[in-house]
Amino acid sequence: MDEKLSFEQALARLEQVVRELETGDLSLDKALALFQEGVMLSRLCSGQLDQAEARIEKLLEQNGEAAAVPFDVE
Amino acid sequence: MREEGAISRNVLTVRELTIHIKRLLDRDERLMAAWVRGEISNFKLHTSGHMYFTLKDETSQLKCVMFRSQAQRLRFRPDSGLQVLVFGQITVFERDGVYQMYCAEMEPAGLGTLHLQFEQLKQRLSDEGLFDEELKRRLPTLPRRIGIVTAATGAALRDMITVSRRRFPGVHILLSPALVQGAEAPASLIRALERVARYPGVDVIIMGRGGGSLEDLWAFNDEGLARAIRACPVPVVSAVGHETDFTIADFAADLRAPTPSAAAELVVPSRVELQASVANLKARLVTVTRRLVERKRLRLKALSDRPVLQRPQGRLLQDRQRLDDLVRRLGFVGGRRVERLRQRLATAAGRLNALSPLAVLSRGYSITKGPDGHVLKEAAEVAVGDAITVMLHKGHLACRVEEIESPEEASNADGREA
Asked: pTM value?
């Protein structure tokens, strides 16, 4: 499976997998392959939601290059 | 030749008269610097940049001209039908012999200048299609990085950060600082927008500022900024001032948020909600797969419950036994002499013969057939006088029926006897 799937794509694919399983008369092989894919997709989605810490940065222009530096909110 | 008795006449040329009138007007303080209110009609913008129009009210008209140098400074576009206040000098245009007003300034009457400028820019960009609904892009479900274009100091940014962190603790925000008011603000906003839009991973941008006066928010009514928003490669959410403030940037943006805090609510997904929907999908995935496998199992069981499959070994053994039997019998037949076979055949044929009705006749029984040749089983099948045939073991007899004893009588007679 593509590791570079965005959360959105992964979620959309997961929805599609579930719908396919719910509606289609699938062979056991196909159903289990979809199930496996669905489990991986849900893991991928959950992983992206579990980022713990906020990152607030400020964009600075240095010598014509934009660079992000940490931004102190307080 | 002089005319007799007439008062001497002081004849002026047209030019002399015109100059005289002009001097009179030019001397009048009221006419030197006047504000006049009226409705523009016959508005013409000459290629030179000068504006020519007539100011009118219900009963009168005033010819007006505004030269290019003054016209260029206007922040709205005069046009016929517009109520305006004009300031300038009223004097005579000698060539045409008419007085007219040379306008130095013009303001919309009723609506303020800014308001009119806003309405006009909005109309023009809208006509151009810059605000079309089809251009609006959908916001990402889970943006990797959120760009924020606003002042680095100020309540708006703080509010947005607070709301964002609350909704999604792991949020990534990239601030692109900009001036948000003053003459430099539009250019600053455009640069900050372009800079953050180019930064990798920025999926959506919030651009805005906190509340303020109409003038404070004015930078967001800039035509260049509106175009920069539409040209931005990622969706832009505008968040300018309070809920009641509308700017050109709001119309150009992919989505207008009533306030900066609301923009953060719209852009940053709620982690709890997303987790719930992922969990829900996962639960559905497990349930539906389990159900599907269970259905397959039941179908398999239904098939395997059929006798054919239930004891496949038993059936096989039966078959093998029959096969063995056949093979043995084949071997038996094959191993016999032809004579013994013939003997068996004769015995079989004899048994067969014993079963033949013809063989029964040899023991003294006979068969009687009716006139139509069918075998008679009951006396009632024939009538007196019918020709019948009686078959004996050897030969047959042609007979005629003389008397019939009815079966009923016979059975009655039996009943009486019992």
From this structure: 0.60
